[in-house]
Amino acid sequence: MEESSGGRPARLYQFNVNFSYIACIIIKAGLKMHSLTFTVANLAGEAVEEGFQETEQMDAAVIYQLIDRLISRYPHIRAVGIGVPGVVNEGVITVGDIPELIHVPLEAAIREKHEVEVILENDMNSTVYGFYQKQEYDDEKSVAVATFIEGSFPGAGLMVDGHIHRGNTRFAGEIAFLPFSITREEQLRQLHDRKTFHPLAACAVSSLIAVMNPEKIALTGSLVQPADVELIRQECLRYIPEMHMPHLTLLEHPDEDYMYGLITMTLESLAYSLKLVEKRR
Q1: pTM
Q2: For 46-70, b where at least 16 C-beta lie within 10 A, e where not — what string?
């Protein structure tokens, strides 16, 4: 009961943030070891448990075992979000850095076994969504996050007018497939050579600018050093007029934005499913 202000005291109600939980799992491909980072969160997005595990062999069984363990420990889990390094179309990875997970119906298998909401999302989409949400824009904006990671091809996450842009077959942001006029093997070599990294990265960023005309682009990944941001900006100015250049920034802790974005998206999927249930009633 609220304290009386002269009349009958009001009754206060509080949203039960622990009524349901969600489980979010980030899958990463490494040069020698793969990893899974997980967070179990309540309906306010607050972490209930966090964990990390490495494995030499990453396949569906490893993911299923982790989910089984988490749901056994927290029966109130009602939605599962999984972030993966690859192209996701209709709940299946079609192109990715972990061959053992390609064409495996992860989303459908988990949903059928545990009867929970499941989203399988590209890592860059989750990262850019988390990055965008943290900006707290008053109006809908267009932003991008481009990543350049050692041992991997580059990728990007795109927010266009406040919405994730996935594309027709969820291929949007796969900047490694831009026509650089070199083989993919040569592209990987040039990305790992400090003499050729900046021009190649600037070519990819300039393409994003020309197509999206974003307000901001965040650069991240182990190949990007703080001083590279200005060097890439100067390279971009060879192609892009100054007035159309977005603000380039370094995203130093992308995993935080990644998990934040995945948690937010998973909570939204749960809220959407609850609305459908309510409508059916």
Answers
A1: 0.88
A2: eebeeeeeeeeebeeebbeebbeeb
